[in-house]
Write a structure and sequence with these properties.
By secondary structure, the chain is an alpha+beta fold. It contains 14 helices and 22 strands. Bound molecules: zinc ion.
């Protein structure tokens, strides 16, 4: 049903007219979007509106690579003599800009493109990268996030967060530049493909099956999911207006049969807490592999088998983890971080709702080691100076390495900032803030400063100094309402901590 697809020509016709004077001298777009932690990630000089992916998987082998063509509709934000895409895949066939062959060169992870003629500021343009190739690798669970495009016994899937989607897609690979996506697959008949958003067509002829998916709300490249192979797809119908479907390794059907349906109650719970679900579809993708993480790929959260088979723990582990990934649909996906320093807004909120769910349902003891919500926060507060010393302030990770970008400080320290904020402004204002945040910035990008500004507005208090201290301070501020809570000295190390705090740290290092 081709009519569902976003037509690039039509979008171009809607593009705003050029806003800059013709006299502006064309110059190269920058090789990075300006992220402190990832200086060459993303690019400058343009803003992507839409990606159209056309991906061919020649055989049914899980190790099968992609022969891909991506067509990108973008708008120049300066007069461009040349510009970059991020790309770290195997090879590039050819590149065109506005239908005319363009010269290109690879420089590290940059694909440097020089169009025949400069691109005027404010104008839409179409860049097509044809017949690029990339191949999946076997995941290594000992190296967190080592594999963006990975194989499983049943096929392949993707986990590009934070900086690796450009391993398998030439793109402006930074969450600051979100875009809608059309994702088409051409696979051997009998092979299943599933991606973000809603399936709009599936046809089989000549021994090949062609699928198309539409992710119409803007999505950060890091949240792309391309799952191809022997997957069972499970439809759970339309729940409260949301298309709910899962894709699982066939070997996991019995294990998951009574677990994945809980996502329907999780959807209801999240809606009660923060408001309407922001996308057209939701579901879980569960692979028969050990990755060591779960990931909030937009509309289709990725989990590995050990979450569910008892390896990581029982119900008190897998169920709060499902809520954690689901909550990212609002916090991190619909509202994406402006920079990777702002990732605490993703993980702090996801941890908050994970722990809130777990505490309400008697699962926090297994999830985190301490049954009570306030007691958990008190224990995190106690080790907060230690975490600030080891991983940096909540909103200023010491590096973009996975161990520091996704440190326990970003997760638990982020949740602790929200707890301190709720103590400061009260529960009613905090709930209003949470709903206002996901409503005001829906389908957008927002920063820590945006959060501070909205918190101040909603609460009627100027929270600039208060939240800056909590997010960026190297020392833990006093906890409002709990003058008796204490912070262990950073230099003391974990050995001097009481048992609950030691248990927390042990989990953090897993
Ligand atoms: Zn998370």
């Amino acid at each position: 049903m081709r009519g569902f697809f976003i037509c690039l020509a039509a979008l171009m016709a809607l593009a705003l007219p050029a806003s800059a004077s013709a006299s502006q001298r064309p110059s190269p777009g920058s090789a990075g979007i300006g992220d402190r932690l990832f200086p060459t990630l993303g690019n400058g000089g343009y803003d992507v509106q839409h990606y159209d992916l056309d991906l061919r998987y020649a055989t049914a082998s899980p190790a099968q690579g992609i022969d891909g063509t991506v067509t990108i509709l973008a708008r120049a934000t300066q007069s461009l003599s040349r510009f970059d895409l991020d790309f770290a895949g195997d090879s590039v066939g050819s590149v065109s800009v506005n239908g005319r062959a363009a010269t290109f060169a690879r420089d590290g992870e940059e694909l440097v493109i020089t169009p025949r003629a400069p691109l005027p500021d404010g104008r839409a343009f179409v860049v097509q990268v044809s017949h690029y190739t990339a191949h999946p690798r076997e995941p290594d669970p000992n190296v967190l996030l080592s594999t963006a495009f990975f194989t499983t016994p049943d096929g392949s899937a993707t986990a590009g967060q934070p900086d690796s989607t450009h391993v398998f897609l030439p793109s402006n690979d930074h969450p600051r530049d979100k875009a809608s996506f059309t994702i088409r697959f051409d696979v051997p008949a009998g092979t299943t493909a599933i991606a973000n958003g809603v399936k709009v067509s599936q046809t089989t002829s000549g021994g090949r099956t062609r699928y198309a998916f539409l992710q119409r709300q803007p999505m950060a490249t890091e949240l792309l999911q391309l799952a191809v192979g022997r997957y069972d797809t499970i439809s759970r119908g339309v729940h409260d207006g949301i298309i709910v479907r899962d894709a699982i390794a066939p070997s996991l059907a019995t294990l998951l049969s009574d677990k994945l349906p809980t996502e329907l109650t999780h959807l209801d719970w999240m809606k009660d807490h923060v408001g309407d679900y922001p996308f057209d579809a939701y579901g879980s993708l569960v692979v028969d592999a050990t990755l060591g993480f779960a990931l909030e790929t937009q509309t289709l959260s990725l989990f590995d088998k050990p979450w569910f088979d008892g390896t990581y723990g029982g119900r008190g582990i897998w169920e709060p983890t499902m809520v954690h990934e689901l909550s990212h649909m609002w916090f991190g996906d619909s509202v994406a971080p402006y920079s990777w320093d702002d990732v605490w807004l993703n993980e702090g909120h996801a941890t908050w709702y994970e722990w809130s769910w777990a505490a309400e349902h008697g699962e926090l003891g297994e999830d985190i080691g301490i049954p009570g919500f306030d007691d958990t926060m008190r224990a995190v507060y106690n080790i907060s100076d230690l975490l600030r010393a080891e991983d940096g302030p909540v909103g200023r990770p010491l590096s973009g390495e996975a161990s520091q970008l996704f440190s326990v400080q970003v997760y638990w320290g982020g949740a602790l900032v929200l707890y301190a904020l709720r103590q400061q402004i009260g529960d009613a204002a905090f709930q209003r803030l949470e709903r206002a945040w996901v409503s005001r910035h829906r389908d957008g990008v927002a920063s820590t400063q945006d959060f501070i500004a909205l918190a101040s507005k909603v609460s009627g208090q100027d929270l600039t100094a208060f939240l800056n201290d909590w997010v960026y301070g190297t020392k833990t501020p006093p906890m409002p309402g709990h003058p008796d809570w204490t912070v262990a000295p950073a230099g003391a190390g974990a050995r001097t901590l009481a048992a609950p705090q030691q248990a927390l740290l042990a989990r953090a290092k897993r």
